[in-house]
Amino acid sequence: MSDYYDTENVPLSKAELLRVLDTVDDAVFVDDAAGNTLWINTACESLFEIEREKVVGVNVDDLEKDGIFTSSVAKMVIETGLHSDLVHQNKSGKRILSTGVPVADENGGIHFIITTSRDITELAELESKLEAARDALKELAGDSGFAAADVIAISPAMRDVMKLVKRLTELDSTVLITGESGVGKGVIAEVLHRYSARRGRPFVRINCGAIPENLIETELFGYEGGAFTGGRKEGKPGLFEIADGGSLFLDEISELPLKLQVKLLQVIQEREIVRVGGVKPIKVDVRIVSASNKDLYTEVIAGRFREDLYYRLNVVPIYIPPLRERKEDLAPFIASFLEKYNAQMGESKRMSADALALLSEYAWPGNVRELQNIVERLIITTRGTFIQPEDLPGFIRESRGAPFLRASSNGGGIMSASGIYIEGMSAGGFSPETDSLKNAVDAYESAILQNAKARFGSTRAIAKALGVTQPTIVRKMQKYGIEARG
Question: In angstroms, rounded to a whole number, what is the distance separating the alpha carbons of residues 101 and 91?
Fold first, then answer.
């Protein structure tokens, strides 16, 4: 099959094709076989800070000399005749990923070259934040030597948490970790054990809410042979015995039944347990770390948790804030999870700046655990190399309040989801007999931008209000002849 494209049978005119290319978000550069610029789209003007009429006919060598970009992927294509990728910079220092593709003529030679480019500055910053997270964790760790994979701690709140954790690795105090579900309470418990003097002994974890009430006692304290029908005749050690010399992590401690709370209190005080059905005390040396996503003191007031046990467990409290309150940690977490799951699945997926912006604005009710699951899902389901906003789950895209039009209740205009009221326009103002859909959409879009400019002023503020990137706003304002600033 020939690589030559038969443009004569394409049901679009050249002008229509160029209009299509002018609407895409990626920058598009079209060069001839000698590297002379034939055409660029509006996104390209914005990304490389150039004007179409001033670069058409200019050779890539001259564009390089003028500092428009640091090197040219089109030159690589001309030299090799192959599809090529290049990371370079524009004149403002933004990092740009460009892909050049040769389009063959009927003889198999290069007819022209199409280059698509996008800004990956934020992606590069994402990766640098991950490195910063590793450096920060090493700085916090000091001689204890926390590994970079243990905890992401860029935000001031998590840095304070890790400073406390570092001190606690040198002590043997009972610790209570609190925070919403999914914030990483179990990770902190493991770090406390891994870098403590008990690190060579077992770390045993039990979820007090995941085991039926009639079984949790035997799980914790074990049982003697013959204690009940169906049990092992030789008996079974409990988790306290298994954790002897190490640490026992009691997750969701608030779910522990009241009758077992009494027995746990005795174990903490006496440092010994008695198996179910037994009478002989067994000495145990265990550091107890507990965790709860509930306010235990509120549970005490409600009569669901023993006050004396609460004070025994709450010797040193650690509170882990939710992810929405430590957004500085979000990008490094994403980079870390991308690295992890790309390696596991043999992929090389990367996060686009627009997708990252959407993820940054989501509230993450499931915290780090939810973020980890979403990144794993995106690597599996995304087709391209870059994860784009359209690849994100709908509930994340919609949570931003992406701008869509709905009729205002007063009938005198339309309202965008971002709260921008457009006076004098209505959802019913479009007539299919007199207007094309494109003209109506353009009119609405132009009106939104004009009203947004009057309300917010700068392109940065407009972009934030409408839930898109600043280059998108600049490009669209240029399209409608609206003066842009800032």
Answer: 23
